[in-house]
Amino acid sequence: MAGFFKKIFSFGKKEVVEERIDETAPLPPIKWDALEALKPAAGQAVPEFLKREEPRPEAEAAPPPPVEPEAPPAPQPAPIEEAKPAQIIPPGPDIQPEPAPVEEPKPEPTPTIPPEPEIQTEPAPVEELQPPKFETAAEEPAPEEIPAAPVIPEPVPAPELQEIPEPEPQRPEIAPSQPEKRPEPAPVEMPAPPAEAPSTAPEPAAPPAEIAPPIRQPAPVETQPIFDEIAPEPQAVPQPEPKPAPGKVTVTKKVEQKAEPQKAPEPAPKRSWFQRMKEGLARSSRELSGNIAGVFTKRKLDEDTLQDLEDVLIRADLGMETALRITDSLAASRYGKDVSETEVRAIMAAEVEKVLTHVALPLELDLSHKPHVILVVGVNGTGKTTTIGKLAAKLTDGGLAVMLAAGDTFRAAAIEQLKIWGERTKSPVIASKLGADAAGLAYDAFEQAKQAGSDVLIIDTAGRLQNKAELMAELEKIVRVLGKLDPEAPHTVLQTVDATTGQNALNQVEIFRNVAGVNGLVMTKLDGTARGGILVAIAAKHKLPVYFIGVGEQVDDLEPFSASEFAKAIAGVA
Ligand SMILES: Nc1nc2c(ncn2[C@@H]2O[C@H](COP(=O)(O)OP(=O)(O)OP(=O)(O)O)[C@@H](O)[C@H]2O)c(=O)[nH]1
């Protein structure tokens, strides 16, 4: 029968020499001492086995054909070989140890330690041939296998995924590569962790320290750049936003800027004041023209026609005097003849202008008075405060120093409103507590205006016409105290008249003229009223100068009064 063959491995040549042994010869006694001595060194013999086993996972074709088939113990030495290199050559055992890493992956590096003790115990009995191979095996296989192991490049991508979920994602990546090596289904996933575990295990050993770092280093290195890439992206996104975001700040500025120029945004400046007045008087004009047209459609100019026309003019608030002037003028030139609506409106415009011409005067200020005092009176709501603001704007725009006095001490809103106008026109405002003596305030304001060298002092007043006696007493007192500082003060007494009040405006002018000595009018709210004709009636009756007309609430909506333009506008003559 076949006898035992003693195998002799020559280093590097991979040759086997077989020597036949006599089976009948007595076996030599076992040298236990020698075996014990071999145990510690046995760990070094493993490298040779690693050569055989390592090629299996990585390259199965590599292993030498003669050795594997003949040596049945090969399967056993495999684990033994792993144990030995674990101490000296960590890379070898790290890659091969299969069972140990399977358990380790979950707890991470710690499980790598247990496999070592088990391996160390087993190698002892098997290694007789290993002692001489320690050095060679350790030198040759370890360096070659470690760098050659494609496992290193694989973990590289793994760390990228790990960056987010940490080490776990690496396993799924490594797993697919190893399952091919190991046909078993269950371990397919498990093998992945072993690859990591071995890498960590060798580190504790001194020599593998060099190998381990390359595996770990790539991971953090790659992860960091990824984080950097991710980090800049979110930062880059917000950066562009802040640029438009400042949009938020600019909006606030725009709003603030518009708050001041509210004066400018008026649509009025685009249109002439006459256009605005004409539009404002359109209701009055349309009504008047329509009524006139109805009178002269089918009839010749006779007494009945003239009477109907007179009624129409009176209903338009032009007043009896003005109505008679118009009918008399028309009858003088066109009596008994056919008369068109256009002819009637032309004659009306001409007569209205005649009435208004002597009242359409510009406001003259005697600046020899320091200041020229303007007392503004009128019924509540007729536009006193607003007119004061508009007028102050005109005067300051003309370079005059203006001071305002909040003489309407009965209404807090009136005081605040005047302060606003003071801010808009950059005019100082003299005000006192609510309910204070209006005359006292007017006196103080006059003194302060003198001291300040103001050119004009405009004093606002209350207009509580419902308490006529008290109002009259207050206005008289104001005029009296102002006269103490300047006998000619107030130099101008303006009354604001609300055009929308109709015939009642005639009575208002009568009252304030007698009490406060009104010597000028400002017709307000001529925009959008159908009763603009009252201005003609007031002018005809009181013959007071009309300095301005108000055609809106904005600062520029105060226009010098023009008789011809007003007459044409109300008569509907282009
Ligand atoms: N449409 C239009 N409104 C005007 C005009 N003048 C003034 N108003 C408005 O009329 C209202 C009353 O104006 P004020 O200036 O407060 O009148 P006031 O006489 O001072 O009233 P009191 O402070 O109560 O005495 C305000 O809403 C003004 O904006 C104008 O010419 N046209």
TrEMBL record:
Gene Ontology CC terms, in alphabetical order: cytoplasm; plasma membrane
Positions of GTP binding: 378-385, 460-464, 524-527
One Gene Ontology MF term: signal recognition particle binding
Name of the top EC class for this enzyme: hydrolase
Catalytic activity: GTP + H2O = GDP + phosphate + H(+)
Topology in membrane: Peripheral membrane protein
Annotated compartments: Cell inner membrane; Cell membrane; Cytoplasm
SMART domains recorded: AAA, SRP54, SRP54_N
Residue ranges of domain SRP54-type proteins GTP-binding in the record: 545-558
One Pfam family hit: SRP54
Gene3D superfamilies on file: P-loop containing nucleotide triphosphate hydrolases, Signal recognition particle SRP54, nucleotide-binding domain
Start and end residues of each stretch annotated as Disordered: 43-269
Entry superkingdom: Bacteria
Compositional bias segments (type: Basic and acidic residues): 49-59, 253-263
GO BP: any one term: SRP-dependent cotranslational protein targeting to membrane
EC number in record: 3.6.5.4
Protein family: Belongs to the GTP-binding SRP family. FtsY subfamily.
Subunit structure: Part of the signal recognition particle protein translocation system, which is composed of SRP and FtsY. SRP is a ribonucleoprotein composed of Ffh and a 4.5S RNA molecule.
NCBIfam families: ftsY (TIGR00064)
Protein's recorded name: Signal recognition particle receptor FtsY
Organism: Mesorhizobium tianshanense
Source organism phylogeny: Bacteria, Pseudomonadati, Pseudomonadota, Alphaproteobacteria, Hyphomicrobiales
